[in-house]
Amino acid sequence: MEKIGVVKEVGEGIATIEIQRVSACGESCASCKGGCTPTATYVKATNEVGAQVGQYVKLNMENKKVLKAAFLVYMVPLIGMIFGIGLGIWIGELLSYEGMEELIGIGVGFIFLILAYFGINRIDKRIRDKNEMRIEITSVIY
């Protein structure tokens, strides 16, 4: 994944980069009536090319890692919730709670959803500690 951003702060081998998030109107904000305001995201990247504050830089991160992170954030909670709903309905039927199986399923589904987010939080801390999701500055544009 390649992005372009502006260097906002430089430290020892690390730079803070401001990346403009792409809006739903495809960056045609003048013709869009959506009223959205462009927002920026700040990321830390390794600065091996010696970029300075105010310079535009090209950032790179492996596509495989981006897809892995997206799967982790979006699909794992969904899968956990669906599994929890199924398990809750099965438990409700097993315990003979007639007419309450779906309610039990929803409750167990939400519990599994919350557990999935706690699990993602732990995985995120481990990834951050190991510096596995490293973003690097590949070149200075201008």
From TrEMBL:
InterPro entries: RseC, SigmaE_reg_RseC_MucC. The chain crosses the membrane at residues 71-91, 103-120. The keyword Membrane applies. Keywords: Membrane, Transmembrane, Transmembrane helix. PANTHER family: PROTEIN RSEC. This is Positive regulator of sigma E, RseC/MucC. The lineage of its organism: Bacteria, Bacillati, Bacillota, Clostridia, Peptostreptococcales.
